[in-house]
Amino acid sequence: MKRLFCKSSLAAFLSTLLTAVSADAYDRVNGEGFASRSQVLATRGMAATSQPLATQVALDILKRGGSAVDAAIAANAAQGLMEPTGNGIGGDLFAIVWSAGEEELYGLNASGRSPKSLPFEYFADNNLDRIPSHGPLPVSVPGAVDGWFELHDRFGRLPMEEVLEPAIDYAQSGFPVTQLVAYYWNRSVPLLEKYPGFRETYMPGGEAPKEGDIFRNPRLAKTLTKIAEGGRDAFYKGDIAREIAAYMEENGGFLSYEDLASHESEWVEPVSTNYRGYDVWELPPNGQGIAALQILNILEGYDLAKMGRTSPEYIHHFVEAKKLAFEDRAKYYADPAFNELPVQELISKEYAAERRQLIDPDKAASRYDAGNVALRHGDTIYLTVADRDGNMVSLIQSNYRGMGSGMTPGELGFILQDRGEMFSLKEGHFNQYQPGKRPFHTIIPAFVTKDGEPWMSFGVMGGATQPQMHAQILINMLDFGLNVQEAGDAPRILHSGSSQPTDEMMRDGGYISLEDGFPMETRRRLVQMGHELRFVSGPYGGYQGIMRDDQGVYHGASESRKDGHAAGY
Fold first, then answer.
1. Which NCBIfam families match (predicted)?
2. Is 380 annotated as catalytic?
């Protein structure tokens, strides 16, 4: 009897175990098993950044009575210090702001322009068929500081001295370097240590800091203090501008004092499409935000929920929609001051219906052409903040590739961006390099409204990954029913190899990278459909999001693939 009982108990145990496994039992007691954490809930304020200390800086500013914009600027300044691998005051900035008092969205393009003294012919004369990724040639005017003051002048409450105080304090006293930042910092050293000023600022003791090391940047503290006291002109027309210009001239660069003194940001109208009843907002070019709108418009014609989140059918249609959108991105996205861009035509439902017809449901395309419409690897930070009054800001800021150009002016404590690498050197291209022109930009903030009310502020950093992940986050929520945290934690689809605004053309269909969590059967079927699959580690982007429900509760989410978190009060 005892032996029979044991066998019976074992059989029951195995049956229960197999049932649990087949029902996708996970460590978490509820929600999706791949979720890294619960969404954060709060009512008075919320911040989500990729650096925990920066998130706390934002909350501290909110608790002092600062607006969402004050808190976002404070967090961004702290991240420029703490995460120089992705951003800093040597880079550019874009933002979308929901003003609760006005019940209106505002868009800010704070990207800088190419040097006026650098002619197009210079590159051919020096046997260059593309703009280098590092050094003096890809440096364009850094727009972030002007962006801060434009945002602050319109939406700020606290004085700028108080907003920048936390970053200045951390720069003077130091902070412990986080895991991923240390990894990317050390990866950048072999490329950038040869450029004047880099070692003195970013390699204390002769090497890059490791995880947990205390890093101080007294040079940056002095620069931020000058900005806090003297305003944006201290950066663009004062001693800082003169030091940048002298450094560039000494080191073979073209960025001049006049380029800096004449810089100005631009307030722009966000553009949108409606997806499943929600209005999705992006900024128009020179950024790539409308690619996300194009992808969503194409996919709206399919029943993605019926296909299933991990199915080969969904992945196939997503990738083909991305390929179509990126052909237009390669051809049309550029500085509108130099081109008449068909933005409304590109994001129209009619155009999406035409493009959708090109997708073969059973076979991957090796190439597409850009549509006829009438008239790379980047590192960035994205953050979002919401305050007690319902104001929300979606802000993205970047030095572009890695830590930027490597050009680290004198005693200023920051690196200049290398965004100019994103120009085309093909004569006649919409994105052709020209003096005083803004390059094609990868960094894009996003926002979603529902029936004219704010619903979600979100973004995903990471070069060409960004519009793909903007679309995936919303599909995960609106088609597959995931919450704001699960939507970011869900395994991601990344297609690479599309045509680019820098002249590269897709001829072989590119390739797909899938994170863990997609079944082997799905991968096998995708290969049978003609897709190439590769294993790639790390380029899936960095997400932050804040959703506001109909009770006024903020739901915060942060990227599990990064160092940061969301927090509220």
1. g_glut_trans
2. yes
